[in-house]
Specification:
Helix content is 38%, strand content 19%. The chain has 226 residues and is of the alpha/beta class. The chain has one domain: Rossmann fold (3-Layer(aba) Sandwich), CATH 3.40.50.720. Strands 3-2-1-4-5-6-7 form a 7-stranded parallel sheet, sandwiched between helices. The structure holds NADP nicotinamide-adenine-dinucleotide phosphate. The site of NADP nicotinamide-adenine-dinucleotide phosphate has 29 residues, from helix 1.
C-alpha cells in the first residue's frame, strides 16, 4: 500500500486521481482550502482530508505537520481566472503565481525528508504553458513556470523523481464539461479533447515508471504543434 497526497484532491482532476489510488488500495490524503470540504470529499472517497491554502505559503509547513512518510505527491491545485494584460488584475496574478510557484515549491520543501525510497512527484501545468491565447498571460506564465519548478526539484530532491503533466482541455472535467468545445476539437489533430481518465492514467504512469524523471508530459492530442 502506497501513501499518496493529492494537493487539490477535493475537486476536478485531483479528485479523480485520488479516487484512482483509493480504488487501488492506497492510503490517500486529499486537500482543500476548507477543512470541512476536505473531510467531506475524503469521506466520499475513503481517504483522509487536510486543509491547506497555497496562497498563504507561510502556513504550509504547519498545515502539513501531520503528513507522514509518502510514496507519491501530486499537486493539481490552481486558483486562477483568465487574466489578460488588458486589463490586468494584480490581485489575481499574485494569487495564481503564488499557488503554482511558491506554493508548489514550498509543499515539496516541507515534505522533502518524508519521501520513501522510490518516491515520485507530479506537478500540474497545462497546455497554456506552450500555447498562449488572449487572456492566458498568467496561465501561460504560471504553467510554464511549473516546468522550471519541476526541473529544479528533480535536481534538488534526487533520487525522488519529479515530473510535470500538462493537459490540454479536459473535456469532461468540471472546468469544461458545460462548455461548447467544437472550436477546441476542430483544432486538435486527434479531433477530440483529453479525458479525465487519460489524465489519471498519465499521472499514474509518471508516478510509477522508474525511468520517468524531469519530463514535461503534454497530454493535449497534439494541439500544441498546430
Ligand atoms: N481541467 C482542465 O481542462 C485542465 C487543463 C489544463 C491544465 N489543467 C491543470 O490541472 C490542474 C487541475 O485543474 P482542475 O480543472 O482539476 O481544477 P479545479 O477543478 O478548479 O480544482 C482545483 C483544486 O485546487 C484547489 N485549490 C484552489 N485554490 C487553492 C489554494 N489557494 N490552495 C490550495 N488548493 C487550492 C481546489 O480546492 P478547494 O476549492 O476545495 O479549496 C481544488 O481541489 C490545474 O493545475 C490546472 O492548471 C487543467
Amino acid at each position: 500500500m502506497s501513501a499518496v497526497l493529492v494537493v487539490g484532491g477535493s475537486g476536478g482532476l485531483g479528485r479523480e486521481i485520488a479516487r484512482h489510488f483509493v480504488e487501488r488500495g492506497d492510503n490517500v490524503t486529499v486537500t482543500s482550502r476548507s477543512a470541512e470540504r476536505a473531510d467531506e470529499v475524503a469521506a466520499e472517497l475513503g481517504a483522509q482530508g487536510l486543509a491547506i491554502d497555497l496562497t498563504a505559503p507561510e502556513t504550509i509547513e504547519k498545515a502539513l505537520a501531520e503528513v507522514g512518510e509518502l510514496d507519491h505527491l501530486v499537486i493539481t491545485a490552481i486558483e486562477q481566472s483568465g487574466n489578460t494584460v488588458k486589463p490586468f488584475s494584480i490581485e489575481d496574478a499574485i494569487k495564481a503565481s503564488t499557488v503554482k510557484l511558491v506554493g508548489y515549491t514550498e509543499v515539496a520543501r516541507v515534505l522533502h525528508d518524508r519521501f520513501r525510497p522510490g518516491a515520485s512527484i507530479v506537478l500540474f501545468g497545462g497546455l497554456g504553458a506552450v500555447r498562449p491565447y488572449p487572456g492566458s498571460t498568467m496561465i501561460t506564465a504560471t504553467n510554464s513556470a511549473v516546468s522550471g519548478v519541476m526541473r529544479t526539484l528533480a535536481v534538488e530532491l534526487a533520487p525522488v523523481r519529479v515530473n510535470a503533466l500538462h493537459p490540454g482541455v479536459v473535456g469532461d472535467s468540471p472546468a469544461w464539461r458545460e462548455r461548447d468545445l467544437a472550436m477546441v476539437t476542430a483544432r486538435t489533430p486527434t479531433g477530440r479533447v483529453t479525458s479525465t481518465a487519460e489524465v489519471v492514467d498519465a499521472t499514474d504512469f509518471l508516478l510509477r515508471n522508474g525511468a520517468a524523471n524531469a519530463i514535461d508530459l503534454h497530454l493535449d492530442g497534439g494541439t500544441r504543434i498546430v
